[in-house]
Design brief:
Layout lengths: L8 E5 L8 H9 L3 E5 L8 H7 L6 E2 L6 H4 L3 E4 L8 H8 L4 E2 L1 H8 L3 E6 L4 H19 L8 E5 L17 E5 L2 H5 L10 E4 L7 H4 L2 H13 L6 E5 L2 H11 L5 E7 L2 E6 L6 E2 L10 H16 L4 H8 L10 E6 L2 E5 L6 H10 L4 E5 L9 H10 E6 L4 H10 L4 E3 L3 H11 L5 E4 L12 H12 L5
Parallel strand pairs: 1-2, 1-4, 2-3, 4-5, 6-8, 6-9, 7-8, 9-10, 10-11, 15-19, 16-17, 16-19, 17-18
Antiparallel strand pairs: 11-12, 12-13, 14-15
Amino acid sequence: MIQDWQNKRVTVMGLGGFGGGVGVTRWLAAAGAKIVVTDKAPAEKLRNSLDQIADLHLPLHLDGHDARDFRDTDLVIVNPAVPETSEYLQLARDAGVPITTEINLFVERCPARCVGITGSVGKSTVTAMIGKVLDEGTKARRPGGTEGRVWVGGNIGRSLLEGLGRITADDIVVLELSSFQLQRTPAVGWSPHVAVVTNITPNHLDWHGSFEAYVAAKLNLVRFQQPGDVVVIQDVPKLRRMLAPLVSDRPGIWRYGLDGDVPFAALDGDDRRLRWEKLKLPVPGRHNRENAAAALTVAQALGVPGEIALSALATFEALPHRLQRVAERDGVTYYNDSKSTTPEAAVTALRAIDAPLLVILGGYDKGSDLRPVAEQAARRTRFAACIGKTGPGLAQLVQAAGGDAAVFPDLRAAVRACRERARPGDVVLLSPACASWDQFVDYRARGDLFTKLARGDDT
């Protein structure tokens, strides 16, 4: 592990349009490294990120990579979304140049206990809920003090590297971890003190190559845990079977779920269930009560009193682009669920809204089976507006299942069609079930446009 970065040559591969490489770049610059930033995208698509490192005056190799940056360097730090098959990563390997990631740099150096969360659906919300209940728990133990802080980051959008010097052994770090990030954590042999696995269903198969490879990446979360570490998993037989080979001898396995609508937790080997009947949650949907059950279980495992955890969740607000209520116009309510990039996520959203529904589906084709969401849309909605590369196929599937659907050229046209068909009391839901890359930079850009259109700005 590099301790002295002074004059070390480092290539940061993948700055990202939304700042994914900004945190590690600034941290390395402060440590004295000699950095080259490279990205396949041109400068105009990286403007937001470039503005955040402009004061560093670094060499930038954009709109493509230079082989020399991968051969003539001391270290390559790769963006998690770059596949292992990249020819430039192979150049680094052939030259004997080590490769790491921002998250690996952080966890190697982090002195605090970590709670790591992964899952195909819901991991961001679970991460935010856990951060909130643990923060309230630590505040209760340290009135007026600063020790025992809670830090939330990882895939949820914040690099914690720049805060590393302020994180202590008394703190707790809560990390959302994607399959892309977990793909490379075996390189440092790391798993968190508390590992939370919400669910594992097919996703990112275009990147991982197979469901088995995707599962293997997810399970890296628990692969290197030590005696005394804790596993928290949703009480689903299929998920428990997936984890069994890695955690069957682990004494600290907590299972969580719902009894009806009541969250519960149970410690493996104990027939008793801890139930939180007094949970009041302001965000809709059974899935969010399951998310709350995960957060309450982690709170229990880490000693946060139940009444404090329940009080924290009573004021929890939906994260942006995750079943977020964004507008009400003419008696019609609009929900932005643009982060719904899998069929399972969209099915969950369709089930969460207890009102007549019109839904917007479709986007980039990741190779997922879209029949379940189409069948749910046919049963649950009055109309499905379908967009993007998957739009025509989705519309056909909805119609074949007995639903009403049509194809539209873009999101603007789809929102307009839903508004024309909606009646007072209806809900218009953007829950695409697909990624956004065919028409948008990412899901945030898609959700921002939907929010703007829902609020009446059609310009």
